[in-house]
Amino acid sequence: MATKLRGRSFLCLKDFTREELEEFIFQAEKMKTDHYAGKDEKFLDGKTVAVLFEKPSTRTRISFAVAIHELGALPLVLETSNMQLIRGETITDTAKVLERYVHGIVARVYEHRTLKELAANASIPVINALSDYSHPCQALGDFLTIKEKKGTLKGVKLAYVGDGNNVANSLLIGGSILGLDVSIASPKGYEPSKEVVEIANSFAKFSNSRIFITNDPYEAVKDADVIYTDVWASMGQEAEHEKRVEIFRPYQINSELLKHAKVDVIVMHCLPAHRGEEITDEVLDGPHSVVFDQAENRLHIQKAILALLI
Q: Is 138 labeled as catalytic in the residue annotation?
């Protein structure tokens, strides 16, 4: 695949232009069509991609392993707990060794600085499969899903209700680049960082999108085309779970909240879901939910990312 993106790392959506993000989505749409027609192209035939995990995973692990395989490459899935990193080898040394063996690195890590260090010390693409700062593969797959369901991204109102976490960060940044209106409703003290909001607002000036941050979930979802949520306590925050459940209870996605959005609103969740907490069974399994189409699209967008970069 001839591409100007080849060789670049994929750490955060802010590193890419609107045209480049649209290219990822376009290629994912094509690959999805080809996949269902039984015409998967082996763009990475004969290559090897290392997939590093510091954190547990279901969708990321499976979707990346399958994506790499369907592109014709070998997925080398590695637990960092079984590598010399656990005994004190540095990320820098690990990156310099891996670049001699593989053609790309996918990494799911606790701290975003780990990804930055990998990318700074490896001459091959490094792809962010999740960090504490951003989850760009998730968000780009979400934008693919929204485009499928709504026919466009420009002017679509996306309302995210819940913790201002890494997913919220990527939806804010990516949405502002691609021209979506993004509203975020979080409890006081749990909003997205000011830095991320400033980045999103700077992109919004060029795309004519609107960024809105509030503590009122009903205000956020008013006339929304898309309602999105995530767990209230992410991995590493288990000790805060009970406290967060009490704080976030008014931010549950339920039938009452949906009444304030558009009648054809779609509901999204990056999964895994804590049913009965951030979202009810009635909504997650209901006619507005697209969460399993959304989960599938992680596969297709990641195939596009891998093929275009590697």
A: yes
